[in-house]
Design a protein that fits this description.
The complex is a heterodimer of chains A (115) and B (485).
Chain A (H helix, E strand, L loop, with lengths): L1 H19 L3 H22 L15 H7 L3 H32 L13
Helix pairs in contact in A: 1-2, 2-4
Chain B lengths: L5 H16 L7 H26 L1 E5 L10 E5 H24 L4 H20 L3 H19 L5 H32 L4 H8 L4 H19 L7 H8 L2 H27 L3 H23 L4 H21 L3 H32 L4 H4 L7 H15 L5 H16 L1 H27 L13 H19 L1 H13 L3 H9 L1
Antiparallel strand pairs in B: 1-2
């Protein structure tokens, strides 16, 4: 249960940073936090108190299915962490370009494109 | 055909062959990209007869049966969009030969990667693969928007990155809800298990996924990135965004929405709201733009609104009309954006009022832009008419109010696109020594797209038949039966 609460708190903090902070770097950190909250939620779905690693060798099926944790969310979260890393990398490299061009990271001062 | 869907592999190989091939100089980047896309187009074309005769091809990767392995599902709907995406990307690549002069390696490599993402989304049979390919598409799109590295491009790039990543995170959240509810990720398996899940919980999960995908499609409450990105990215890229990427978003909305919760009224209502809002507000905002690319961007939002609205009608006729409009839009917007790209290439500006009266253009560009505009409005003899007529008829069956709104938006469409056409092409009398400029590599894609638009408008039976077949692919229980065997 505590994991779900933590997931909601982390995701909410991330969402707050993305929506309310004016600094681009903070927004990118917020994006990371938001997806990490979702990752924690996803991994908690497959967690089981006192569970064993999902290796079936030497166990009969009933015991396996009642004890093992669900391995699928872990695989998903690993994939998603890698994706998240690449998004952060692209985001931060654009932020570097942004700072070079505008000399600021404050989104309120970056308003060139308009109709 | 045990290899699954080869074009994805081909395009992935192409994307990474391009940097290797251009280690010494980037002269050959465009040739590698073109060769890869032609090969994928041929590979796709060889699969078409089999799919049209058998209805649906399902590959299980490495032979693992459906709920456990990864399924690749090819039916009329996805193969049509796959073919369309590769075709539009190929034409954009050919067009870019003369347009892109520097950092060509990255440009063609990123276009190939974004095509990989689109193709993967179109053929994926499970939710998580769809998400991974969505991210492949997104990350390469962020880089493409910021490609010019000037101030507007960087600003739009970071804007798109933040909004787009929030959208994809929402998709991931929706997918994890669905996994928690059903314990499965395979679309067909999820679909069966959702039958015994309370409607509100499943509706929340699907609603999150639809909202996330709507960011990609550019529907109205999630559209803030779109006009800026279209305005600041290299012009041919806008053709890819509105002809390929947006369709992938709409496809995902349709596939996930219809396979899992076709009868859920609240979701259709949500989509109808997004659609109507995009349609009306997009058209009004397009009317006041002075930047040609931004105008076409708002026009894309408006047309995506038409598509979302007619899909949200939920009737067979309405959904087919939406799907046909999606195909037609890819060609129309492709043509308009490529003509615009030529205008920008020639004039070095995209402000309509600066262009007006100062330049003369090659007649091929003028006529192509006219064909694109008339088709966008929905004038008979062009393909836009066919799908718009179907949309009017479909809305009339459900509620005449929607028909009136669609017709009014069409009038506004006529106003904004003819304003642009008039100011750019008719507003000058000055002789212009450069009026004859139109490189062959730009002429060919424009002529091909115009020819397709006119041909699909004069012979509509084929495309209407195709859209009806595509609708039948959305049938939930047939899909489950084919995938799970």
């Amino acid at each position: 249960m505590i994991a779900y609460i933590a997931a909601v708190v982390i995701a909410a903090a991330g969402l707050y940073a993305v929506l309310m902070k004016d600094n681009v770097i903070k927004k990118i950190i917020g994006l990371s936090l938001f997806s990490n909250g979702i990752h924690l939620f996803l991994i908690s779905l497959g967690y089981r108190e006192g569970g064993i690693a999902p290796i079936m060798q030497g166990l009969d099926f009933m015991r396996f299915s009642s004890m093992a944790v669900d391995p699928l969310p872990q695989a998903l979260v690993l994939t998603s962490i890698v994706i998240n890393l690449s998004v952060s990398a692209v985001g931060l490299s654009i932020a570097i370009l942004l700072y070079r061009e505008f000399r600021t990271l404050d989104v309120r001062k970056i308003r060139e494109v308009r109709g | 055909m045990a290899y699954g869907f080869l074009p994805i592999g081909v395009m992935l190989a192409t994307a990474f062959l391009i940097p290797i091939a251009s280690l010494k100089s980037d002269r050959h980047a465009k040739h590698v990209a073109t060769a890869g896309m032609i090969l994928s187009l041929i590979l796709t074309a060889t699969m078409v007869p089999e799919i049209f005769s058998s209805g649906r091809l399902v590959f299980q990767i490495e032979g693992w049966p459906a709920p456990f392995g990864i399924s690749i599902v090819l039916d009329t709907l996805s193969i049509t969009l796959v073919f369309l995406s590769i075709l539009v990307s190929l034409l954009v690549v050919v067009f870019s030969y003369k347009y892109v002069k520097e950092r060509r390696t990255k440009y063609y490599s990123l276009i190939s990667l974004s095509l990989v993402g689109t193709l993967g989304m179109l053929v994926a049979g499970d939710l998580f693969n769809m998400f991974v390919y969505l991210e492949v598409l997104s990350v390469s799109s962020y880089a493409l928007v910021a490609f010019n590295k000037d101030r507007p491009a960087i600003e739009s790039g970071i804007k798109y990155l933040i909004i787009g990543s929030l959208g994809t995170s929402l998709v991931l959240l929706g997918i994890s809800f669905l996994y928690g509810l059903t314990g499965s990720l395979n679309l067909a398996d999820v679909s069966i298990k959702l039958l015994s899940v309370p409607g509100a919980a499943a509706g929340l999960a699907i609603g999150l996924i639809i909202s996330g995908m709507a960011v990609k499609a550019g529907l109205m409450p999630f559209h803030a990135w779109l006009p800026d990105s279209y305005q600041s990215s290299p012009s041919p890229i806008s053709a890819i965004f509105s002809g390929v990427t947006a369709n992938a978003g709409i496809y995902a909305i349709m596939r996930i929405g219809f396979i899992s919760l076709m009868s859920h009224q609240a979701l259709l209502g949500l989509l109808l709201f997004f659609g109507l809002l995009s349609m009306v507000a997009g058209a009004f905002l397009a009317l006041v733009q002075s930047n040609l690319k931004r105008l076409l961007g708002y026009s894309s939002i408006s047309q995506m609104g038409y598509i979302a609205m007619s899909i949200a009608l939920g009737t067979p006729f309405g959904v087919s009309a939406g799907m046909l409009h999606m195909i037609n839009q890819a060609f129309i917007k492709g043509l308009l954006f490529l003509s615009t790209a030529f205008i920008v290439y020639r004039t070095k500006t995209d402000n309509i009022y600066e262009i007006s009266g100062n330049f003369r253009f090659h007649p091929v560009v003028a006529y192509s832009f006219l064909i694109g505009s008339l088709s966008l409005v929905g004038v008979p003899l062009f393909n836009g008419f066919v799908s718009k007529w179907m949309i009017y008829m479909a809305t009339l069956e459900v509620s005449p109010v929607l028909t009136v709104i669609s017709l009014m938006v069409t009038v506004i469409t006529l106003a904004y696109i003819l304003k642009a056409f008039y100011l750019i092409f008719l507003g000058n009398a000055k002789p212009d020594p450069d009026a004859g400029i139109l490189p062959l590599s730009m002429k060919i894609p424009i002529i091909i797209l115009s020819a397709i638009i006119v041909a699909m408008g004069i012979f509509p039976e084929l495309s209407i038949k195709l859209s009806v077949m595509m609708f039948s692919d959305l049938d939930r229980f047939a899909y489950i039966g084919d995938v799970l065997k």
